[in-house]
Design brief:
By secondary structure, this protein is an all-beta fold. It starts with a strand and ends with a strand.
């Protein structure tokens, strides 16, 4: 299928003329022999077509006194130039094939659609090229580039036809999981190329906190299949222990492993897997041990992808580092919607993730790749077609970008018609076969390495949720050469939620079809004994042989006292003076004491009382109270991590009895406070704590970092409140609740946070002065709170306080930020092409649309032409100025200009974006009175600030005055990676060459907002180290 797109009339005219001067230009008529050198091509244009294009090239040896150079005339020998129509006409009596490509011009009865270009004629090999050239004179063929081999042509491959572009329909030709007609899955990608992401793919299920694939029925949630900590099964009776769930075989560990209410009944030996890194997950290798008793340093879960690195396991969070941290088989940290750390799968991470892949959409571009003469920097050394470029051009019949080595090659670094710069194609008639593709299990040498289906036999695999070795025949089938976790090669499971039901399983009397033959309890024989005391054990007297016993019968016929439910074989001998296990003579001194989490205890037979002996693995008796047993879980408790005396750092987690020091991800400033977020989600806050805006459960000021009561993957601070997005996509807000800015009906202050009503699957959030907004994974924006000037984008302004609902007419949004009384968002209208839209108050130019009126609906910001590579948006939580950063390191600002906050040399408002005089900007932030940016200077990453300096918030030796543009950088900081700006203070997150992170703050110290342990009301120009991190 093809996709049609409109192209401009100008582009159409140029395409049809296929040659000559830029005839749409006009001669200014102002040049003279004494004029200075030209500055652009327009100054050189004489307004004529037939004499060739005039270019501005002052350094060219052929340039005239004004710096202009004339190129060759557009028409070839034997053609007539029509100055009026701006075309070259064939003179058939002189020559019918002017370009010498072997095909006569259409004017002369031939079929050549462009007789000025020898690379355009019927039958020529069509190439997918960025200029949309129609090489074979057939606009319906546009180069069969299908890099991901999914059967759909790259949408970047186009030809022009009738004023439109005819293009392929693969919206991402570097990913096989994105193509038209593919089922949508929960992966933040547009799998079916319909313009929407993850629509209808989430499922209802339950929280799975211990990552054993079984959820807690008391914690329902909706999430994507495969989300860490999520399961569709609800049979886990202890979601803090991976060795306990409904499908677990009972083992000898004193636990109710299978959640049937009984402990160690009929225990069996199971396979234990070595867990060398103590992350709770083992690996399936030749060191496994079969045992009924738990084995130290071994696990029941054989799903660890790197047992030498405890930071990598199925329970780990995926980080932006080019590594498969969560063991799902791929490095897939989402940088932003639709953009992951290694999109092209070449093993090199995106530059954003600290990787070295300079083009993460092309699997043939990475450091160390061969350099070709193809106009691309293949080896990422910053040089296109450098001295090491391979200058051989091969005939490429199938258009897959790789040529046939057998055919003679042309040696040149200039592109050759119908040829490519890469050889090695072992089948030049099939575009799906060439070096670099994945070798499938199809009997073909797909990757041209000389081996066919090396070490692979692909078979069908069926979803096997219960792990019994048989899958659901009706489930999705996956074909693979190797076993797949969670799948089985055997179909026919009649109940994939029960490991006791599968073909060939022995039939027992349990009212279930155990062998999946369609009959219940057939061929099963069972003796049932009366159980008068209801302890699960009966006596032989009065027994029955049946599969349908009456009530009060048991399959166990070994009770020693059927009148006392405390006495039956296998029962624990308790410290209670009763022969509980039916073993006459059992000493009560050896009885089991049922204290919580105690594996060994002592029983005083004279008083029948217990004392703590040895705690169960992972627990400790920290309160020294025998009545509470071993009350602390030292595996996960950050206050008692590993033992009773070890307390983890603030906002750190305790994982497998070890404190996990998660690195810092970003820093954000509210009005008079600061928030610092770790990669694992922990948040630290300090400064003005009134109204509970720090989110730490209190309303007190903090001069030292204080941990939040919640974890977040995104966090933003406003005026008197803040909001965050957790790892399940839920939005929580805290602080002052007036105007319903927390997203709930109540207007009460809440220092710990509440979940915003109806907001789910969020990916970004912002907190302004009196309102809040969030971006959903669908690309929609929801806002709530005060709507006095239309800042909620509902189409009308109102003094009413509103609960969360969608902003009208806005989609494809990937980021949002809130200001004083307005909101702005970034839309990704096409891969790599983004726009900024704003709504609400615009009296000081806040909306950036070249106007100063308010807008109740989103309006597009008037960014300069060609500026569409936006990567960062920032608005101060109580501010009226906006900053956006581009991938090229440019910084644009608009809005309120008081104190020179826009950084362009004046103190006036600007309603259109203006360019700040900094280059190579890495991060930027704006507050209520000043702005700051991280940018490269030589080999350093420095911070420069501008605007009001009354509280010394510019961080240097300047006097107390305003500075209208960036000047001297902040003193002493040369390794910054992020910056945040509040009302009269600023902070920077730094990271040195050894990876050590620190935070420095400067400006107003009042309320403890510098995080240095001091509350003194002074202004500090020198950066202060934030303590206790």
């Amino acid at each position: 299928m093809s996709v049609w797109k409109w192209v401009s009339l100008c582009a159409l005219v140029v395409g049809l003329s296929a040659c000559g001067d830029d005839g749409v230009m006009t001669d200014s008529g102002t040049r003279s022999d004494t004029s200075i050198a030209c500055t652009d091509d327009t100054a050189c244009d004489d307004g004529l077509f037939c004499n060739g294009t005039e270019l501005c090239a002052p350094d060219d040896a052929e340039a005239d006194v004004t710096g202009c150079v004339r190129t060759a005339p557009p028409c070839l020998e034997g053609q007539r130039c029509d100055e009026t129509a701006l075309v070259c006409q064939s003179v058939c009596s002189v020559i019918a094939d002017a370009d010498g490509d072997g095909v006569d011009a259409i004017d002369c009865g031939g079929a050549d659609c462009d007789d000025t270009n020898p690379n355009r004629f019927p039958g020529n090999a069509e190439v997918c090229d960025p200029d949309n050239v129609d090489e074979d004179c057939d606009p319906l063929t546009f180069g069969a580039r299908d890099a991901d081999r999914d059967g759909f042509i790259d949408a970047a491959c186009c030809n022009e036809m009738g004023g439109m572009l005819v293009c392929g329909d693969d919206c991402s030709d570097s990913r096989r999981d994105m193509r038209p007609g593919l089922a949508e899955t929960c992966d933040f990608l547009d799998n079916d190329c319909d313009g929407a992401t993850d629509e209808g793919a989430s499922l209802p299920g339950f929280a799975d906190m211990d990552h054993d694939l079984h959820g807690d029925t008391s914690m329902p949630m909706t999430a994507c299949p495969g989300t860490p900590g999520f399961s569709v099964l609800d049979d886990d009776c202890n979601d803090a222990d991976p060795e306990v769930h409904g499908a677990q075989i009972e083992i000898c560990d004193g636990k109710d492993n299978n959640c049937n209410g009984e402990i160690d009944e009929a225990p069996a030996a199971v396979t234990w897997y070595p867990d060398d890194d103590a992350d709770g997950f083992g690996t399936d290798n030749d060191r496994t041990i079969v045992s009924c008793d738990p084995i130290p340093d071994f696990s029941l879960r054989p799903s660890d992808c790197d047992d030498g690195d405890r930071s990598r396991s199925p329970a780990a969070r995926e980080l932006c580092n080019g590594i498969d941290d969560d063991c799902n088989g791929r490095a897939d940290f989402m940088i932003r919607l639709g953009d992951f750390e290694d999109d092209d799968g070449d093993g090199h991470a995106d530059l954003v993730c600290g990787g070295d892949d300079c083009n993460d959409a092309d699997p043939t571009v990475y450091p160390g790749a061969p350099e070709y003469c193809d106009g691309i920097d293949n080896d990422c050394d910053g040089v296109v077609d450098g001295d090491d470029a391979l200058g051989f051009w091969y005939f490429d019949f199938d258009g897959d970008g790789y040529g046939d080595d057998v055919m003679p090659a042309i040696e040149s670094c200039e592109p050759q018609p119908g040829r490519v710069a890469r050889g090695g194609d072992c089948d030049d008639s099939d575009a799906t076969i060439h070096p670099g593709v994945a070798d499938l299990c199809d009997g073909i040498d797909d990757d041209c390495d000389g081996a066919t289906d090396e070490n692979s036999v692909r078979v069908a695999h069926y979803v096997d949720l219960d792990g019994d070795g048989f899958g659901d025949s009706a489930s999705s089938v996956m074909f693979a050469c190797l076993p797949i976790s969670g799948f089985a090669p055997n179909p026919g499971d009649c109940d994939d939620a029960s490991p006791a039901r599968f073909p060939g399983n022995p039939e027992v009397c349990d009212f279930l079809d155990n062998d999946c033959d369609g009959e219940v309890d057939n061929d099963a024989v069972q003796t049932w004994c009366p159980d008068d005391d209801g302890d699960g054990h009966g006596v032989m007297a009065g027994s029955l042989v049946t599969c349908d016993p009456p009530a009060g019968y048991s399959m166990l016929c070994d009770d020693c006292d059927d009148a006392d439910s405390r006495r039956f074989p296998g029962n624990d001998e308790l410290c209670d003076g009763v022969d509980s296990d039916c073993l006459a003579g059992t000493a009560e001194a050896d009885a089991v004491c049922t204290l919580p989490n105690v594996s060994m205890s002592s029983c005083d037979a004279t008083t029948s009382t217990c004392g703590v002996g040895t705690c169960a693995s992972g627990f400790a008796d920290c309160d020294l109270d025998a009545n509470t047993g071993c009350e602390v879980n030292t595996v996960t408790n950050s206050f008692f991590c590993g033992d009773c005396s070890t307390r983890c750092g603030i906002a750190d987690r305790c994982v497998s009895s070890l404190c996990e020091d998660s690195p810092f991800a970003d820093i954000n400033a509210g009005f008079r406070h600061t928030m610092l977020r770790r990669v694992a989600g922990g948040v630290l806050a300090w400064g003005f704590g009134s109204y509970g805006r720090l989110g730490d459960g209190s309303s007190v000021n903090r001069a030292r970092p204080s941990p939040s009561t919640r974890t977040h993957r995104v966090v933003d601070g406003g005026f008197n409140h803040g909001c965050g997005v957790d790892f399940a996509g839920r939005v929580a807000c805290w602080g002052q609740g007036t105007n319903q800015r927390l997203g709930v009906a109540s207007t009460e202050t809440n220092p710990s946070g509440v979940l915003a009503t109806g907001v789910a699957n969020a990916v970004d959030v912002c907190a302004g002065t009196f309102h809040s907004c969030a971006v959903l994974s669908s690309g929609a924006v929801w806002c709530w709170g005060y709507n006095s000037v239309g800042q909620l984008g509902r189409g009308a302004s109102s003094s009413s306080n509103l609960l969360p609902d969608a902003v009208a007419g806005l989609d494809q949004v990937i980021a949002v930020d809130c200001g004083l009384n307005f909101t702005c968002a970034v839309r990704e209208v096409a891969p790599g092409s983004r726009e900024v839209w704003c709504w609400g108050e615009g009296s000081q130019g806040e909306l950036g649309n070249a106007a100063t009126g308010r807008a109740n609906l989103p309006v597009r910001v008037a960014l300069p032409p060609g500026v569409d590579d936006i990567v960062e948006l920032d608005i101060g939580g109580n501010g009226s100025s906006v900053a956006v950063r581009t991938t090229s390191g440019q910084l644009y600002m608009w809005g309120k200009g008081d104190w020179g906050i826009l950084g362009i040399g004046d103190g006036t408002d600007h309603s259109s974006p203006v360019l700040v005089g900094l280059s190579d900007v890495l991060d930027a932030a704006t507050g209520t009175r000043n702005s700051c940016a991280v940018h490269r200077v030589g080999g350093d990453r420095v911070v420069s600030c501008w605007g009001n300096n009354e509280q010394r918030q510019l961080g240097n030796t300047y006097s107390l005055q305003r500075f209208n543009s960036p000047g001297e950088s902040v003193t002493g900081i040369t390794d910054a990676i992020a910056v945040a700006v509040g009302d009269a203070h600023a902070c920077a997150l730094t990271q040195d060459a050894a990876g050590v992170q620190r935070v420095y703050c400067w400006g107003a110290q009042e309320y403890g907002r510098l995080g240095n342990g001091l509350f003194t009301r002074v202004s500090v120009p020198m950066p202060q180290l934030v303590v206790d991190l």
